[in-house]
Predict the structure.
Amino acid sequence: MGKEHILVGLEVGTSKICVVIGEARDDQLRILAVGETPSSGMRKGEIVDFDNAKECVREALAIAEDRGDVQVENVILGVSGSHIESFNYRGSVEIPQDRDEIDERDIEDVEANAREVSLPPPNTVIHTITQHYFVDGQDGVLSPVGMVGHRLEAEFHLIHGVATRIQNTIRCVKELNIEVEDVVLNGLASALVVLDNHQKKLGALVIDIGGGASDYIVYNDGVVKQSGVLAVGGDHITNDISMGLRIPTQRAGRLKEEEGSALLGNALPGDLIPLRDEPGFAGRDVDRETLNTIIHMRMRETLELLRRRLAQQAFLDYTGAGVFLTGGCSLLPGIASLTEEVFGMPVTLTHAQNVSGMTSAFQNPRYSTAIGLVKYGQAIAEDYSGGGWLDWIKGVLPGKRRRAG
């Protein structure tokens, strides 16, 4: 990569469309601009109204371009949705008999072998993340190139999803004459900027709670062991408030953000929140403890559902660094205490780390995913070694790939 490079991350979320433009200079990343618009045509992280979603993306891109004085030509695209799943898998190759030293070709072959694993017919590999290598049975090998051996094996974490659902999001961008540089799971992008290597080594669970979905990823011993998407987020809390208190959804969302808490028992008896008159809504008072109870019950249910899903494998028992919460819903007061109660381990509220530029952007957990997408772009620009999804995407999306800026 050159001395400086402009990169763009695009998160097409349920509650917002977010574009982050960053400048990578050597190993530093500086945020230049953020473009954000409310989402339309999205539900639970997936497109349900193509034209509306496309117009929202167009608007967010235009805002970011204007603020950053940059013409966006390509983006790193974040994806989410309950259709995304993962599992751990071991691939293997035999070293050709005419040599016994392992080289880069063998690394490529064992990765290709892993990507050929049988998946449900509609699905395709999004990420093939290397965990560890094995050379003739020797485990824990980090870099086998140059080693002598006859059999190379590798453990991978494979993330896959329904190809057509992801392709719809890609088309939404392509129809705006923007190239898709790569496709990245939102949870993986967030983890890139909220965790450091020491925390990954100790073991950590990152939960990014967005509007329509909660992305999660578990690190053990420095590598990804579990990941996925729970199709529940902050919008479900808003809907519960709207139905429980019988107030408009938009007003319920503002009430949640301005007055809500995930903790119970902190409100004084008779503590009422006045809601002013608005067009189509006759104002009234709302009991604060009732509001907090609605938020608490939905968040507890979501966290317990996630804990049960993660407990199907044993990796959660080795998360020495604890739980890291990010995303817009992590701004809810009391959510850290509730999460600590459910998971029984330390909880950290976090945002993008080791990033400079717009303080208001990288210190806001709402932007962790979009900034993480830029960080991912920085990594592949420095040293890209290929991947299942990008190889697939080049086949279905014709046209020369271009760098942004």
